[in-house]
Specification:
Strand content: under 5%
Helix content: 55-70%
């Protein structure tokens, strides 16, 4: 259905065209991901319905957390928004009553206490987005990308397949690729996205992401593949940044390929 461009349809509709029954919360999660993270939305839409029920709440959580620091110019308010999500994750990790919310409620149905504690690192890392200070050094930037994108993919794979080995390394590589593609937008918001914005600095970061992706190459359980599919296209982005680093500032890095995603979904690979 990707080849036919069917992903513009209602997220309740399977690629076969048959309706998929979600409740209002899952509908809301799917809509959030469709608007806020279109590429991950596409990867979920070619996944089995059971995987969609797991991934849409997780990715909706990520959309909400990632945009929380950007909806206000006041760092203190942004911190409060992030703290709301940390409190929700704490409720899930403690196993007691969890607040009613269109994302938190379906998310809580799938997360273990350990998953919730791991996702707290995603929220904590987003505190950097509340301010306009640059990263202190490359180590801090790498930690940010590992705690956000790496942790997200690790939890996604664990929820689908139980074995998250190598997933964090792949997620980190995806995070680097996405970050390099976002550099122009971040700079337009008066942020300092690169510790070293020279060609050498761009290449160093791209190389770290590429090495991380390559270190994690190998087969995954079929059930885990939908959580890995966001990595499709990341290698091409990182190689483009390495060979022509001025494409980063110019915003000319390649977009992920829908056709490659369709092939991955059809043949069960990534």
């Amino acid at each position: 259905c990707l080849v036919r461009g069917a992903l513009g349809r209602n997220p309740l509709e399977a690629c076969s065209g048959h309706p998929v029954t979600f409740d209002d919360d899952l509908n809301a999660c799917a809509a959030l991901v469709e608007k806020g993270d279109p590429w991950r939305f596409r990867t979920v839409m070619v996944a089995p319905v059971a995987a969609r029920r797991v991934l849409f709440p997780l990715y909706a959580f990520n959309v909400e957390v990632s945009r929380a620091p950007w909806v206000t110019a006041e760092p203190m308010i942004a911190e409060m928004r992030l703290q709301w999500w940390r409190d929700a994750l704490e409720e899930i990790s403690e196993g007691g009553q969890v607040r009613r919310h269109s994302v938190v409620t379906p998310l809580a149905a799938h997360l273990s206490p350990e998953d919730a504690r791991r996702l707290d690192a995603v929220v904590g890392a987003r505190r950097w987005d509340c301010y306009k200070d640059p990263f202190e050094d490359m180590a801090q930037q790498i930690s940010y990308l590992r705690d956000t994108s790496g942790t997200l993919m690790s939890v996604a794979v664990r929820l689908l397949a139980g074995d998250a080995a190598r997933a964090e390394a792949i997620g980190f590589g995806v995070g680097v690729a996405n970050w390099l593609r976002a550099v122009p937008a971040l700079e337009s918001q008066k942020r300092v996205p690169m510790v070293d914005g020279t060609h050498a600095g761009v290449c160093k970061l791209a190389e770290s992401g590429l090495q991380s992706l390559q270190s994690a190459r190998g087969r995954f359980a079929k059930s885990a593949l939908p959580a890995i599919w966001p990595a499709i296209g990341a290698t091409e982005v990182l190689k483009a940044a390495l060979t022509t680093p001025d494409r980063v500032a110019a915003g000319r890095l390649p977009e992920p390929s829908r056709f490659k995603l369709a092939l991955a979904a059809t043949f069960g690979r990534w």
